[in-house]
Amino acid sequence: MNGELLGRIGSPADVKALDPAELPQLCADIRSTLVTYGKAHGGHIGSNLGVVELTVALHRVFDSPRDRIVFDVSHQSYVHKMLTGRAQAYLDPDRYDEVTGFTNPEESEHDQFVLGHTGTSISLACGLAKTRDMMGDLNGGSGIGNVIAVIGDGSLSSAIAFEGLNNAAEQGGNLIIIVNDNEMSIAEDFGGMYGPLARLRESGGTAEPNLFHAFGLDYRYVEDGNNVAALVEVLEQVKDIDHPIVLHVHTLKGLGLDAEDAAAGLVEGRCEANHWQDPLSAADRLPGARKYYGEMAMRALEERFATEPGLVVISPATPGSNGITRAFRERAGAHYVDTGIAEEHAVAFASGIAKAGGRPALATSATFFQRTYDQLQQELALNRTPATLLVFGAGISDADNTHSGAFDIAMMSNIPNLVCLAPTSGEEFLRMLAWSTSAENHDPVVIRVPGDMILDGEREGHYPAFRADECPESFTFIGQRSDLPTPPAPDCPWNRYRISHLGSEVALIGLGDAYRIAEQVAAELTWDPKNPIDATLIDPRRYDALDYRTLDAIAAGHRIVVTIEDGQLDGGWGEKITAYYASLPSLSRDRQTHYRATITPQHVLNFGADKEFTDRVPMERLHDRYDLAPGRIVDRIRTALASGR
Amino acid sequence: MNGELLGRIGSPADVKALDPAELPQLCADIRSTLVTYGKAHGGHIGSNLGVVELTVALHRVFDSPRDRIVFDVSHQSYVHKMLTGRAQAYLDPDRYDEVTGFTNPEESEHDQFVLGHTGTSISLACGLAKTRDMMGDLNGGSGIGNVIAVIGDGSLSSAIAFEGLNNAAEQGGNLIIIVNDNEMSIAEDFGGMYGPLARLRESGGTAEPNLFHAFGLDYRYVEDGNNVAALVEVLEQVKDIDHPIVLHVHTLKGLGLDAEDAAAGLVEGRCEANHWQDPLSAADRLPGARKYYGEMAMRALEERFATEPGLVVISPATPGSNGITRAFRERAGAHYVDTGIAEEHAVAFASGIAKAGGRPALATSATFFQRTYDQLQQELALNRTPATLLVFGAGISDADNTHSGAFDIAMMSNIPNLVCLAPTSGEEFLRMLAWSTSAENHDPVVIRVPGDMILDGEREGHYPAFRADECPESFTFIGQRSDLPTPPAPDCPWNRYRISHLGSEVALIGLGDAYRIAEQVAAELTWDPKNPIDATLIDPRRYDALDYRTLDAIAAGHRIVVTIEDGQLDGGWGEKITAYYASLPSLSRDRQTHYRATITPQHVLNFGADKEFTDRVPMERLHDRYDLAPGRIVDRIRTALASGR
């Protein structure tokens, strides 16, 4: 029966207590539980189906938490969770949300780290092993036994994974690196190492060149990575080993799914669809903003491929979620490059393309751009090469704490020379993309791809209500312009804020997706019949530099200036506006030719996210916590108006 | 005669025009020029002496700038500069400062990129080659011929270098990756790959495992990497090759130096001293802040090694410049780990050590912490592991644009959960280090190691004038405290600002090294006999979170609050104080229990660096440009006081 044996597993000790003959039954139980769970809840089902036997064997042979297992990225840790006291979270649909999709020490002592970005497991494991060896050895006082890293073949292409491999052999001591080779990254593996890796599989682990040998590591191959008895035997042999070893295990992603499962949206085997199972994907549902705007961007670029040979789309292994469909990739040919999970290479590669006269557009998630900060700063910004970075999944969200989109504004917009744009409609997004990938542009450009708030607005027919060509670009609000010299930021067509509506008393500036919040605040401010406020509404569009002229102009006509952004306030965009106004009256003479006593607003209020990690917190609660609900913003504006000064 | 033949080389065409028999003489000329230059000017002389023949051969065989040469890190590009129209900058002492120490497209069309961080050359070269191939081929319309990356064996250990190797074979097409193997990183090479690499050298390139083969790359070995005729021959054979190849060239760092040069501070061969030649190092000069405080920290940690087995110092290949001396390393044994140039591994490794109960302290430059941003955020901050990061070389400086220390505050202090501390004396630095590496601390801690402004003060006997134990820690300035809830930032002993002097009207808050500027401003404010100002002086010490209580307290007693920081204003520390005051009157009720109309200062002024890259600009000019000279700050304060509001 589905889950019967699994339901009796309360801890790894129960796995050890089973008769060897029961292990295949436990695996079957886990597999059917995963399939049921996948159909109803979704998740990284494919990778977990591939490591059922490996995980059972690990907990059969090793003694967690004394022996430490570090799962790379940890999206393949569902089976591990089932075997370490959390089976009910997969068996009981009412409890599906009790566990996260990644390892989490707050859930269990069997989980070492919160992980969601690839490639770090070997380095983390080296650290655990180092402390063990400093405090004794396998049997010493550290309380740490074997240290095991489990890393997929796709993750192996990440920068830090190589650094980890290179450090492991030199460190020495007990360390077991299990390479879970299912012949897939998120999409296909990409890289020169995968040919030799395939020949290793074909030769039963005997062929040279052997990448792991080249890093000075001991190596062993296990062909039948979905045979629990075989795995138990090998793991028993490497247990307590006195030096680092790579155990190369050949598994099948999505093993056990059948045609019926396929109908429910679960796909067996080595294919891209296997990576992430979404039970709603088969439903007649409109695509979310990521795919919608991603496909829109790809269509626009594709039209130009025939006449612009240097136009290249780059994806570090995550095409599907950003609307870079398989069909597009096939049509694009050499105009599309999947670098594997290698964001650093992707950005430096883009800089090289741009330097030589090409026009690259690199698409990935806000959270994954973190992985290449130094290339953003050095290879792109310092060298001022005209690459376009499409930032997907940016903004406050109910995502896992490993994948937050709340940090990209603070991270990217403080790097000199990076032009950062936040379109508020699909049309404007395409205009920005067309410019950034054209010969007109000479600088690296970040485009924060619109999110669901904008898309919802467009679907409601709300947009494009505020088209740039209807707006007073060169508008000067009141009196003279500031002659404050333009800062050294690069030039672009979106240097000036767009004033969508001209009111008085309160000026609302809403960046990107938060522009929709500003609109709602503007509407609500009119609601109080005794004291309706006709607020000015501004769409800044560019967030790496300020439009000083518009800021000067509105200062005189408005008592309160409000900034709203969809990201962390600390180090973000709104604080720069506050600081600008605060510094105005005293700028020294050769830094301004300002009239002496510039009028500044009485209050500048910044709205955005707190500086914190959030883990799957519903959006409504976040907006409440951050005072981002329009009603809260209205309250604070009215409080400030009442406070005077 | 020294430099005679070199002096006749105006461009690569002149190298091609020489008789083959003259090439060794040209090499000798270059070598003696480098030695003379090194004695007088200093620089990366060792690596350049190693690539004299390689660089001459490259310009003999290839056709730069049509053929593109990308030098990794580019500190070995002096010879290239000599052969591409810039020989006089090395021959004529009056012109030594005409060129930078790195490649720079603004200097010459023969330079591809501004580079100073390791490992990116292969990825950049892939980008150049990609555009070439998209626009035709070697003989097509792109104007780009052969693409050549020159990378050292030490750089090969960096994350992105592996990503580049892995992508190169898959990309295909002409690409020549020259591995300049001088058997050294900055200090010794570190990593499991260097054993197999040594066996490759010993076997004349025939041994397996071959790392480059494992990445699917063609490979060729050249033992005599300092024989120009041999190199010319091999390069002619690989020129116009139709697929990527690794040319593994064995060279000798510092070749040609002798005992006399050693007396002048130039050291031959494969040793750490060879990496950076400083003509002043032999002089009777006091060490700078990096080495001074670095050695101080290492001494303090070393005393604890015998009783604290989990205490580990980590350096990603840059020990010497941060006071981690060879003698210390030898005594430290397993308490010291050099990870190679592998900052990502270093941070994740530190997180693992801390997770297991050890206490790691990781030391590197502010600019190199950029290379591991994602690990700072995910592995350290999200996981709240108590590692200590010692940030050396932070702050505005006259350094190259590739090595600026002006960006670390904006980069690190906006990451949740990272406790960021800026000590203003050596004594306080040691107290912070003792706490952060103790069992008391449960969070990752950044310590911005004091710079030369602090050290100069200490040497003048100026410090420790403001010792923490003399200061009113729990001081409440005026009236009631704010009951604003503490933000979710981690706790630490430096949550409260230290009020060094209590005055009125103007409050000066100077962070870290900038505290010394604040002191000078305080002094100058008293100078005007008609209107002397007795300013309050505050040492904040912690910069990832604000001390709201002190900020509230000083607001009522001071018309102007001034923040001064040694780094970029945008996204930095001072703007947070401005934004805090700006938001005060209107915080919604459940986000404060503040008294209704909090008094805020009339003006908050932020002083710090503009958002820009600066390249070897003298400090005085930078302080002038940024209004950071004490006199300028005084002017702006008096202007603001006069402006009223």
TrEMBL record, chains A, B:
Enzyme class name: transferase
SMART domains in UniProt: Transket_pyr
Cofactor: Mg(2+); thiamine diphosphate
Pathway participation: Metabolic intermediate biosynthesis; 1-deoxy-D-xylulose 5-phosphate biosynthesis; 1-deoxy-D-xylulose 5-phosphate from D-glyceraldehyde 3-phosphate and pyruvate: step 1/1
InterPro entries in the record: Dxylulose-5-P_synthase, THDP-binding, Transketo_C/PFOR_II, Transketolase-like_Pyr-bd, Transketolase_C, Transketolase_CS
GO-annotated biological processes: isopentenyl diphosphate biosynthetic process, methylerythritol 4-phosphate pathway; terpenoid biosynthetic process; thiamine biosynthetic process
GO MF annotation list: 1-deoxy-D-xylulose-5-phosphate synthase activity; magnesium ion binding
Record bears the keyword Magnesium: yes
CDD domains: TPP_DXS (cd02007), TPP_PYR_DXS_TK_like (cd07033)
Domain of life: Bacteria
GO CC annotations, alphabetized: cytosol
Keyword Ribonucleoprotein: no
EC numbers for this chain: 2.2.1.7
Transketolase-like pyrimidine-binding domain mapped to chain residues: 291-457
Alphabetically ordered keywords of this record: Isoprene biosynthesis, Magnesium, Metal-binding, Thiamine biosynthesis, Thiamine pyrophosphate, Transferase
Family as reported in the entry's similarity comment: Belongs to the transketolase family. DXPS subfamily.
NCBIfam families, per database record: PRK05444.2-2, PRK12315.1
Subunit structure as annotated in this protein's UniProt entry: Homodimer.
Protein name: 1-deoxy-D-xylulose-5-phosphate synthase
Organism name: Bifidobacterium pullorum subsp. gallinarum
